[in-house]
Amino acid sequence: MRYVQLRAFHQVAISGGFSRAAEALFLTQPAISDQVRKLEEEYDVLLFNRNKKQVTLTQSGQKLLDITHRMFDTEQQALELLTESRALRSGTLRIVADAAHHLLHILGSFRARYPGVQVSVRAGNTETVISSLYSYDADIGVLGEVPTGRDFEVLKLNSTPIIAFASIDHPLAGKKSLTLKQLAQESLVMRERGSKTRQKLEDLAGASKIELRPVIEAEGREAVREIVASGAGIGFVSAAEFGQDSRLVPITIDAPETLMDEALICLRERSGGKLVRAFLDMARSMSVD
Q1: How many CB atoms lie within 10 A of CB 285?
Q2: Same domain, 162 and 247
Q3: Sign (positive/negative) of CA torsion 170, 175, 180, 182?
Q4: Are residues 151 and 190 in the same domain?
Q5: Which parts of the sequence belong to the HTH lysR-type domain (predicted)?
Q6: What does the pLDDT read at residue 221?
């Protein structure tokens, strides 16, 4: 088994094809194909299902990818250790967040201290955050439900109650609070299934034998916000995520308070990476302040 063969396999697997892998590694496609073929032949195993339109991993290929993910991530951590003075002057920190605004104050300070580091932030619900971390598609996650288990290092940011919100032109916009029973009679706009805000709200209502049935289901918090702003219904969000929007008004839910925890998380095995550690340390120092 050779390093170049594993590198070729890994790049094809994460790129989704031999051509894209060749581009990423600055090699020719025949060279990449040859390295993967030799690996398969040497160990008499099929790593990819090949057809004209796409390349997919076999069961053996998926198991090997899980190993090479850890292998190349460890290699990257070793490189960061050996080039520590440069690690915080360049590189990329990938963040997937269920609500990016929880990061704004941290991002500003981080960029000011490490201007050479590129930060990418993309949106996703709790399931997306967890899966992205496990698949090494993200370095840090931000989510509204602290995961159980020992796989993650967790830094709690805040805890705020779930509230309802409506357009300023909505007939109930003048209400300070609404019961779950009253809300169940209204047109509701809710996040997709997999959203912890939705799950907690439905669990709260279910405990009182009340069903909250959305008339509109939207993917992503911003989509819900825009739909509610149009007057199409009432939405739900944690108080910390409501923010400032002149088109909307908050409405307290008259029920036992249900809190949403917001936390930074990363895989414990990757928490030693220089960029990850620098970001977590900064977030921790700011939360203390």
Answers
A1: 11
A2: yes
A3: negative
A4: no
A5: 1-58
A6: 83
CB 190 within 8 Å of CB 236:
yes
Same domain as 216, residue 162: yes
CA distance 186 to 180: 10
On whether both 210 and 183 belong to a single domain, the answer is: yes
Q: Say how far apart CA 67 and CA 63 lie, in whole Å.
A: 7
State how far the Cα of 12 lies from the Cα of 19, in Å rounded to an integer. 8
Vertex 73, ends 71 and 79: CA angle to 5°?
105
Rg for the chain, CA atoms, rounded: 23
User: Does residue 140 share a domain with residue 15?
Assistant: no
Between CA 209 and CA 252 the distance in angstroms is: 20
**Residues 255 and 266 grouped into a single domain:** no
| Euclidean distance between CA atoms 134 and 144, whole angstroms | 17
Look at the block and give the residue holding tokens 């029973």: 181
Q: How many CB atoms lie within 10 A of CB 91?
A: 20
pLDDT of 226 reads 96
237: containing domain = 158-260
The helix (H) or strand (E) run that includes residue 3 is helix 3-15
CATH, residue 165: 3.40.190.290
**Which amino acid, residue 242?**
F
Residues 229-247 have pLDDT tens digits of 999 999 999 888 888 899 9
Q: Are 125 and 194 in contact (CB under 8 A)?
A: yes
Q: Tell me the pTM.
A: 0.58
For 27, the 3-state DSSP assignment is: coil
Summarize the confidence of residues 262-271 as an average pLDDT.
89
DSSP-assigned beta bridge partners for residue 214: 188
Lowest-confidence pick of 57-66, 100-109, 129-138, 143-152: 143-152
